[in-house]
């Protein structure tokens, strides 16, 4: 992440699905920028840490209106895509709208070709619903994408890949992508 972005002036960073805030703190330290974080629960975040270092709100990126105005130079969306409960393209389009013109979205997610297909909820990501009730949200790996599916939703959401790598992950490899607006 650092190598791609250090050439640009980073003023605002957004961490979607921030959990403990580890990557948010990393952005704060490296870029010395304003950092905003959202997660659909506040279970993991240390509120005192958040108050001192970044702006935090409980927000379901799929269902809720976004809590702040403006755009972001860097958006972190790591290990969240596989947790989305709804068809992913509208959420990715929402994220695209939050990204500044020359901004970068960092996305990582398990590779279904190594992790295996999750069929507990849907046989195909295209079967995922467009709408749902907040009470029906499930916190689980809802769907693992293969390379073809991931490329398809990235394109449909208006992104292009600036850089792509694999990481070994704890169990199996993950896609690691730097995305920009198409």
Helix content: 25-40%
| Uncertain parts | none
H-E string: HEHEHEEHEHHEE
Can you summarize the main beta sheet? Answer: 7 strands, mixed
Number of helices: 6
What is the CATH architecture term? 3-Layer(aba) Sandwich
Structural class of the helices, strands and pairings?
A: alpha/beta
Number of structural units classed as domains? 1
Estimate the mean pLDDT confidence.
Answer: 93
Number of separate strands: 7
Distance between the termini: 19 Å
Global geometry: globular
Question: Which radius of gyration do the C-alpha atoms yield?
Answer: 16 Å
The share of residues in extended strands comes to 25-35%
CATH H-level superfamily title: Vaccinia Virus protein VP39
In CATH, the topology is named Rossmann fold
Instruction: Using the coordinates above, name the CATH class.
Output: Alpha Beta
Q: Which strand order spans the largest sheet, edge to edge or round the barrel? A: 3-2-1-4-5-7-6
Task: Describe what is shown at a glance.
The chain is of the alpha/beta class and 182 residues long. Helices cover 25% and strands 28% of the residues.
